Amino acid sequence: MEIPPLSEVRRLTEKKRDAWWTVLLVDPVATPLVRWTAKYARWVTPNQITWAALFLGLGAAACFAQADWMWLIIGAVLYHVSFILDCMDGKLARLTGRGSEFGGWLDYVFDRIRVLACAVALMGGQYARTGDVVYVWLALVVVFLDMLRYIDALQIFKVRHSMRKKIKARARAARRSMENQHPDAVEQEQRDELHFMEDLLRDNPAADIDNTHDELAEQVATGQVSAAADEPENADGTTAPAREKVVVDLHQEFKSRFPWYGKFRSLLLRHRIRAHLISGIEFQMGVFIVGPLFGAVLPVTIGSGVLLMVFELAIIYKLLLSTRDFERTLAKYPVPEPVAVPAEVSVPAQAEAPAAEQNQKQGDDARI
């Protein structure tokens, strides 16, 4: 395999948006290592790196269990190296094209095992050293928060995906209903072509970084920026008539309430840092690296947990506002009226009676 230059490796393997801990403290080490490792891709696979990350994480847990400050420092270093390897497996998979669904599952499960083992070992060691039962509760809290953020992220993704599907379905149904009922007088808004701002920003990252969302929507509407059509063809394969492009932004209310957020987010994106500043990654690093390094496991763990919950609640609040935008968008498309089905010729009641009596009699005979 021909290894591309480091700049190209960065483009291929590093995420456009990532946690600030990863961007500042992991990628500068992990990406060059991935480029070097790719030279030996015949012998080193992403799954092997995933296993190595797990073993180092378990080694960190063993150090944490000793509870001595020197062992805590060694454990913190091992945990950070383990996290670097955890980032390398995905990068190597993207660079070499050797990723797999099983590898993704393995990475997720091993991450949870590492967090569980380190939480129990770190807090258990501190409990054995101090006898303070609060460390037992902290172990439970760390594991709970780690699982909560994953469940929350998964459910939010499902809700957002569901909202998009419902908007598209309602728009199609409303348009087809209007075309069937009034084929010569269909309003232009019912012929609109839907595009979602999230998709446009993903395809046009410069607009996301520069915080020019409104300008991008206008450019798409006027055809200055190309966007994939929602329904480019009719059902029979013929080309559909040109429709006005409409951009659906499910974050309008959030932007109107917090106008400063766009500039703040834009500033972070220029450095590939996502606005979710305290995510699960920063939470783990606070608990398993910062706390042990400074001998402040208790206060740093509590502080990291509080900050994680603050940002998770902010995301939930943003989702709440997004659902309101969803309801307003859905209301623009009227619910299609059900198609009337011609009534079948009814049988006269006098004719039905003998048949009903006969059926009843047969039923009575069967019960006897």
TrEMBL record:
- Could you tell me one molecular function GO term of this UniProt entry? phosphotransferase activity, for other substituted phosphate groups
What's one GO-annotated cellular component? membrane
Sections of the chain in a coiled coil: none
UniProt keyword terms in alphabetical order: Membrane, Transferase, Transmembrane, Transmembrane helix
- Transmembrane stretches, start-end: 20-37, 49-65, 134-157, 273-294, 300-320
Give the record's GO biological process terms.
phospholipid biosynthetic process
Into which family does the record put it? Answer: Belongs to the CDP-alcohol phosphatidyltransferase class-I family.
- What is this protein's record name? CDP-alcohol phosphatidyltransferase family protein
* The species this protein was found in: Streptomyces albidoflavus
